[in-house]
Amino acid sequence: MIEIKGLHKSYVTGANSLHVLKGIDFHVEEGEMVAIMGSSGSGKSTLLNIIGMLDEADEGSYKLDGTTIKNLNEKVAARYRNKFLGFVFQSFNLISYKNALENVAMPLYYQGAKRGERFKKAMSYLEKVGLADWATHLPNELSGGQKQRVAIARALASEPKVLLADEPTGALDSTTSYEVMEIVQSINDEGKTILIVTHEDDIAHMCKRIVHLRDGIIIEDTKIEQVRVKEKSHV
């Protein structure tokens, strides 16, 4: 699903150049659930941004679902993002003046779906994350956990191949984090490929594989025994 070889990325700041990724080789099979870990500055968010087509590597190759991602203009990149990728962010990134249903329907608008179809599909995804009763509420009327569930529903609405989550539980307390991860695990159980950037060890162990970055290189890549949230919450 994701094939990355020899990936390098540097940023120029004034007279200095910061070499963030130093030859990353990284492969993800369809249906995997992978945690990407590393201290601040290790390159994990840069890697996620390149996978998400929000940034481009200086060197190396990147294939997504067999498609080579290189030198795309913004229009093509946006089309590929909408087709292949769903994003979940720490800060939710909901549109404040649109209600939950309208927020979830947004990617479908960009895919050209008709209004009735958009809202019907968006509602089914709100039901999936347990928020059908909150469809008409604005983001400021929702708790942090509810906002993140709306964000997950929005990410899934366009039926992407890969779900990318950047610190999805970073702004949530542990109980709410586990509720969100339970939803994420159930989505993965249905076969969705998921990548999660996290600095939280317990969240990483709810995935099936942990990749550790340090100073722009992968120092460890391990398949693990996944901790299931349902079982954890019953302990």
Which terms would index this structure?
8 helices; 35% helix; 235 residues; 10 strands; six-stranded mixed sheet; four-stranded antiparallel sheet; single chain; globular; alpha/beta
Task: Summarize the structure in words.
There is one protein chain. The chain has 235 residues and is α/β, with parallel strands linked by helices. It is built from 8 helices and 10 strands. The chain has helices at 44-51, 74-84, 100-110, 115-128, 144-157, 174-189, 201-204, 229-233; strands at residues 2-13, 16-28, 33-37, 59-64, 67-68, 85-89, 162-166, 193-197, 209-214, 217-223. A 6-stranded mixed β-sheet has the order 6-7-8-3-9-10, with helices on both faces. Helix 6 links the parallel strand 7 (162-166) and strand 8 (193-197). Helix 4 packs across helix 5 and helix 5 (144-157) runs parallel beside helix 6 (174-189).
Query: Which secondary-structure class do the elements indicate?
Result: alpha/beta
Q: Percent of residues in beta strands?
A: 25-35%
Q: Spatial order of the strands in the main sheet?
A: 6-7-8-3-9-10
Rg for CA atoms: 18 Å
Largest sheet: 6 strands, mixed
Order of helices and strands: EEEHEEHEHHHEHEHEEH
**How many helices?**
8
Poorly predicted ranges (pLDDT <50, ≥5 residues)?
none
Average pLDDT, all residues: 91
- Percent of residues in helical segments? 25-40%
Q: Indicate the overall shape.
A: globular
Distance between the termini: 35 Å
Question: What is the total tally of β strands?
Answer: 10
